[in-house]
Structure formats: C-alpha cells, structure tokens
Amino acid sequence: MKVNEWCMYCGECAGVCPRSLIEVRESCLIFNENECKDCRICIQVCPVQALSKEE
Amino acid sequence: MSIETDILVIGAGPAGSSAAKHAALNGAKVLMIDKKSEIGTPKRCAEGVSKEGLKTLGIEPSSRWIAKELTGVKFISPNGTSVWLNEERVKLPEAGYILERKIFDKHMAMNAARAGVEIMVKTIATGLKRSEEGIIVSAECMDQSFDIHTKIVIAADGPESRVGRWAGLKTTLKPKDMESCAQFEMARVEMDDPNSIEFYFGSVAPGGYAWIFPKGDDIANVGLGIITTKTDKTAYEHLLEFVSNCPSTQNAQPVELNIGGDPVGGMLKKLVTDNLVIVGDAASQVSPLTGGGIISAMKGGVFAGEVTAAAIEEGNYSQKRLQEYQDKCEVEMVKTFKKELKVKNYLLNLSDEELDSIADAFKNTEFERISTKEIIKVLVKVSPKALLKLGKLF
Predict the structure, then answer these.
(1) In terms of domains, do B152 and B240 share one?
(2) For residues B164-192, b (16+ Cβ closer than 10 Å) or e, as one string?
(3) What's the fold here for domain A2-52?
(4) pLDDT digits (tens, 9 = 90+) for B39-77
(5) Which residues of B are less than 8 Å from A23 in CB distance?
(6) Is B174's Cβ below 8 Å from some Cβ in A?
(7) CB B31 within 8 A of CB B175
(8) How many domains does chain B have?
(9) Which of B37, B164, B300, B378 could be bridged to B278 by S-S, CB 3.0 to 4.6 A?
C-alpha cells in the first residue's frame, strides 16, 4: 500500500479494515501487507485519497 | 520496564478522560495513555454540544473552551430554501455551544489528572494479551517499549479502535456505517446570523449533510460528512465544491483542515468482554442522525468509569460483572439511536426535490420548541411519505 504524503492519519482506513491490518500512529500508518486480501475498502473511505495500491 | 495499574484507559478524548476521571474518583488506580503528543489535536469534529448535555454531565461551561454560544439553527435545502429557527421564534432546549476542542479535551484530561489519574502522552498500545491477573498491554513511548499489567482496560481509542478487536470484540465498521468527514476552519465566513448553526442537505453531501458552525467573529467550522458508498468523490472533493458554491464562503479562507471518520451506524452490539470495555467513538456511541458524539461519549465514559471502579473494588472483572456498563449505555442511548437510524435511512433515500418540498412545508410551520425529536414530529406531519415510514416512531 502506498501512503501518500498528504495522509493526515485520521484512522478512518483502520476503522473499516475488515482484517484489522492497519495501525495508526501519530504521524505514520503501518500496514500488515502480508495478510491483506486487497479488498481496497481502506482506499475507498479515505477522505483525502491518500492511499493507493502499489501495482 | 513494566507498569501495574487497576485500570488502563487507552485514548484521552472526552470518553477516555471521563472514564478515567470517574474510575479514579471511585477509588481505582488509573493510568490513561494517548498516542498523540498533544491531547485534543488534531480536532476531528465540528465541535458542537448541547447545553443540556453538558448540564446532565455536571460540566460547568467555561469561557476557556467555549468558542460560541448558539441561539438558532438554520436548515438549507438543495435549492437554497432555508428554514431558520431561533430563540425569538421558539424554545431551543437543544441550543448549545461550539467548543474549542483542542482546549476542551485538554481540560477534561486535566480534570482526570486532578482526580488522581496518571497520564502518559505519546504512548501507543501495540498489543494485548491475557494473563492470570488480567491483561498485559504492550506499549511504546518514544524509544521505550514496555508492558502495562492491568486488571481492566477501557478502550477509548476512537473509530479506528484496534484494542477492542485484540480482545475479541467486533468493532470493525462497514463503510456504510462510517461517515467520511472533511472540514475547514475558516475566516471571513459571511453568515446571515453568526449565532446560528447551518445545515445543508441533499446531493451537496451524499449520505450526510454539510454544516457551518460559527466560532465567533467571522470564523466558522465549514465541513461535511458523506457515505463513501454513495459517491465517487472523496469528502475533501465534496468540501471544496461546497465551499466554492456556498454564498457564505465565497470570500472565506481556510486556516485548518480536519478530516476523519464518524461511526454513525448505531452503538455496537457488544461493548464488554472479560477485563475490557469499549467507550466513545470506539463503541460507536454517536448519534446516527446528527453524527454528534461528544456528549454520548462522555456519558459512556462516566458509566465505564463507575462500573469498572466498582468491579475493581469487588475484585470481579468478568464480562458478567462489566455487563452493567453495557446495560446502562443501552438504557441511555440505544433506544434513541435506533429511532434516529430509521429517520436517517429515510432521509438518505429522499431526492433533492423531495428535500426542497419538505423545506417549503417547514417554512410555513409553527414550531413550539426545537429539538431533534420535535423536528422529526413536524416532518411526519408535513410529509405523507415520512408519515408512512416514520409515523409510529414518535
């Protein structure tokens, strides 16, 4: 997952991740990429489109 | 390094600080941690509270954290029809204040400290495991990693809550139950009445509404919440459009951008497990209709603090003992939230034209008093469709 520079760490992505794979820190997001099933709900809900999938 | 406590509160928002304070006041040893370096920042909401709500919680209003006292409310339909209700026309039992959350949240945490709560900032919980005595939470503060041994955890870690999930509670939200919000705090906002809050409905904010909440002088929170399944645009893109089109913000300039999720699907079904309770946004203790959650979060916090402190005193931290907290929350919130959810689902299915016609009917209606309940009662009167869908609710 690519976290763009303008991410504001609001945590909305973590709140909807069905596998609880996103940890929100004060100024960084930590993704557990190994368990990700690519549902992309986190990308969908981000209020500022800060997340994108690295193809 | 390891720390021992009776109760660990994770998250120092209004829910966490209320829980911590009331647990300490009732005799428990309480530690509250927050991942942020400054409690209360960044703000993530429109900062509105009702006077009645603060009064119920026994919180004396202070000029240090009240930005504006409100005397009216204005609803604006998609075609610009406005329904303006103020204290001159009707009683406003739900009139309220716009807070300065950055100060208010700190004030609440300071009061918790004064009640005996130990506070650690810039401290994040990174995991949770059960032990014979209770729960061990692994945490990090700056370059230190350590364990916190506690009998009970109060998870107040916001809509992104992971702590409840670690303990086996279902706190994951579906996108349809999470309002995606974006807001500017702006200067040079030109409002017809700087003492009234304004709500804008319709396609301006699919699945939610836009707002202008005055903060004194020409300053206001200008924001909106959307349901992302109902639009292809982000909340931020909708906000830019709103600011560009709204007459009140033609000359306004932003001084702050806030974003975040608002859990509007109604309170979670299960808030309690052995040695752990969840409160506030983490428990979706938010009005599904208005998205407001400061007062309900603090009420949840008070209940959590009181019940967990009693459980500590009794030496019983089981789910069965802590269930009293959930029971109290259900009595206080769930019945109202269920009604509000039905009203919200009804409103979400209205077209812009239907919203305009309701606004027209509202313009000619006399209100005796203004409250969410009263407005819904009037809605049922003026709209045959609403009567069919909502008639039995109120």
Answers:
(1) no
(2) bbbbebebbbebebbbbbbbbbbeebebe
(3) Alpha-Beta Plaits (3.30.70)
(4) 999 988 899 999 989 999 999 999 999 999 998 888 999
(5) 126, 162
(6) yes
(7) no
(8) 3
(9) B164
